[in-house]
Amino acid sequence: MDSVGVAAAAPDAGPGPAWQTKCPWGAPSTTSISCSLADVMSEQLAKELQLEEENAAFPEVVAAAEGPFITGENIDTSSDLMLAQMLQMEFDREYDAQLRREEKKINGDSKVSISFENYRKVHPYDSDSSEDEVDWQDTRHDPYRADKPTTTPRRGFIGKGKDITTKHDEVVCGRKNTARMENFAPEFQVGDGIGMDLKLSNQVFNALKQHAYSEERRSARLHEKKEHSTAEKAVDPKTRLLLYKMVNSGMLETITGCISTGKESVVFHAYGGNATEDKVIPPECAIKVFKTTLNEFKNRDKYIKDDYRFKDRFSKLNPRKIIRMWAEKEMHNLTRMQNAGIPCPQVVILKKHVLVMSFIGQDQVPAPKLKDVTLSSEDMKKAYYQILNMMQQLYRECNLVHADLSEYNMLWHDGKVWLIDVSQSVEPTHPHGLEFLFRDCRNVSQFFQKGGVAEALNERELFNAVSGLNITADNEVDFQAEIEALEKMNEDHVQNHGKKLSTFSSDGDPPIYDE
Ligand code: ADP
Ligand code: MN
Predict the structure, then answer these.
(1) What is this structure's pTM?
(2) In the predicted model, what is the mean pLDDT of residues 191-203?
(3) Could you tell me where the Basic and acidic residues compositional bias lies (predicted)?
């Protein structure tokens, strides 16, 4: 229950709970309803309220304001509402525990097992005990806000004069409320109070009702997602929970499916949800989930281990954290590129090893990779010059080498080339940075030379054009040797003078390799 913020309850709550004014069933503005159980049960007060309420016009529809749910600010354990909700959560938890026991009993040691997963009532946001879990409730508005106005029941009363008993009579009402709980969704656990002479105050009943409805809706939403999205099976339960939270918080509207399953990542398409105060969510998003199966990442160590930006952290981290670092790296690199005006996905949010960015493509169809698209010779030439320009910008303005640049990581969209997949990108002074750049140049040259762009520079010319270096070797082997010599020189420089000297200064000084 801690994650819903009960622990943060203010010890001295003000004169009335904050939600009172926001309750969707409202209270006539002239009335001041007290919320303590004793007050609610007081006959005197009930009659007063009844009279006042009858004098006032009965609004047919009460506009739904913010739901009366537990959010960070609205904590008041003295309220019946709060207690009811806490009780409900406890019911849910017990129900789930019981379900788990039954599941276990039925399955025994059988190799074929059945799952009660879909019947669970669990509250996803308080079911994860991971201590470093991001709490979505912190940053989001209440995702369970009622989205339909709630109608007030019709007026009705029996008796005459002083003995009038209306639907507002507290005892009748309490009993009725208890009975009406049976009308909640069949799977909604109302406890075993139904058989007793239990009287629920209107407030408590309404809160429970609202809670039941919103739980029902949310449950349906979760179960629907689960059943329709086979793509999500590609990710582990923790990741799935992260994705659910993104949907439940309203940040994403729906996750439609998987676009790509690679060795190191799975990419999903999603429709963007509601903007927050500080973020506009693009209408379509790509979610890159870095795989947490570690062996795939072993061969990537060389990129990050020698990247001084991550050097201090690398040795201390466990493999799970290293994978998060890949996601973080991609985010930082994309941001640098965005700032330089290079067409690339825009970062939306990073949560652990899950990176949400804008989707390059339209209507769930990702833009084709350069290797899959057939361009006119004119477009091909245009693409080539654009890439030459982007590689220079990347090197000079972003201080980055893509390090996996090829027709597989360039998308053709909107009549231009977009760069993606930059988690492995490094700074040029990375111990292997120039080798990576040379490899990128080789890929690009070969692709465009084969693609019939007569103007395309060869890989060595392209390397010099991008880096501003002037390596004169006229064959690949010697060129490669010179590159390695430069890298060695830089490493020695780092050894002797400390690593910061090896980076380029921001005012565009020539790189150290020019020395
Ligand atoms: P990997 O490391 O698996 O190659 P990528 O970042 O290259 O990861 O993503 C894999 C594929 O997913 C890409 O080839 C592309 O088709 C698709 N993809 C990735 N990001 C986006 C995006 N922002 N918009 C559209 N498609 C994307
Ligand atoms: Mn890729």
Answers:
(1) 0.57
(2) 54
(3) 137-148
